[in-house]
Write a structure and sequence with these properties.
The protein is mainly β. The protein has a single domain, classed as Sulfite Oxidase, Chain A, domain 2. Helix content is 9%, strand content 32%. The strands form 2 sheets. Strands 1, 4, 5, 8, 9 and 10 form a 6-stranded mixed β-sheet that branches. Strands 3-2-11-6-7 form a 5-stranded mixed β-sheet. The structure holds ligand MTE and molybdenum atom. The site of molybdenum atom (MO) has 6 residues, from loops.
Length: 201
């Protein structure tokens, strides 16, 4: 007698438990972006925190890269359905960034803004308490430009479109303001475990 549903499974059960619904495991590292890599010069690179239109603080590359660095190890999940296990990232947590700026978050939402004019919205609470960072290293090496180096937002508990590559700043907003993909039908929050891919999910 054939036990339907188990025949042809090519993954061990522990893999299935780590995969959010609808995802498959990949070993490579796909590259997804809306256009070509922006040209970035570390000598002139700046990262800026803003409250609405008002700049709060900005950092040069050397200043940002000398802030306390934290390592994160774990799995990432893309809305296009690939997941990648056991990735290692180092960077500056948003907690440490706010400490350096000597502020607490002035609002409950923000927009991550990138050098390719990509934006994405994230609730501030999702970036605090070590849940997110400005990543500057992948697998111990500077992040390759194809994966958003020199610095990308990294929010691993949300779908990977929230992890804005080539990050140039974070803008606090008073309301939850849709970013590039959120304006085009993607979910405002994007929790992979609740399969929040598109508006209405
Ligand atoms: N600046 C910027 N960040 C971006 C994107 C982009 O087009 N521009 N694409 C997003 C999407 S849809 C995904 S799935 C991930 C892909 O990251 P990766 O190319 O490192 O796998 O980057 C996200 N961050
Ligand atoms: Mo994506």
């Amino acid at each position: 007698m054939v036990t339907r549903g188990f025949v042809g499974r090519r993954q061990p059960p522990e893999t299935g438990a780590r995969l959010p619904p609808g995802q498959y495991l990949t070993q490579d590292f796909p590259i997804l972006q809306i256009g070509p890599n922006p040209v970035i010069d570390l000598a002139t690179w700046r990262f800026t925190l803003r409250e609405g239109a008002r700049p709060i603080k900005s950092w040069s590359w050397e200043e940002l890269d000398s802030l306390p660095r934290t390592r994160w190890h774990g799995d990432i999940h893309c809305v296009t359905k690939w997941s990648k296990f056991d990735t290692d990232w180092d960077g500056v947590t948003i907690d440490d960034l706010l400490v350096d700026a000597n502020i607490s978050a002035p609002s409950a939402y923000l927009l991550a803004e990138s050098f390719d004019d990509y934006t994405t919205n994230v609730p501030v609470a999702d970036l605090l308490n070590g849940r997110a960072m400005i990543a500057t290293r992948y697998a111990g090496e500077p992040i390759h430009a194809d994966h958003g180096g020199p610095a990308r937002l990294f929010v691993p508990h949300l779908y990977f479109w929230k992890s804005a590559k080539w990050l140039k700043g974070l803008r606090f907003t008073t309301t939850d303001t849709a970013g590039y993909w959120e304006l085009r039908g993607y979910h405002m929050y994007g929790d992979p475990w609740r399969e929040q891919r598109y508006i209405g999910d």
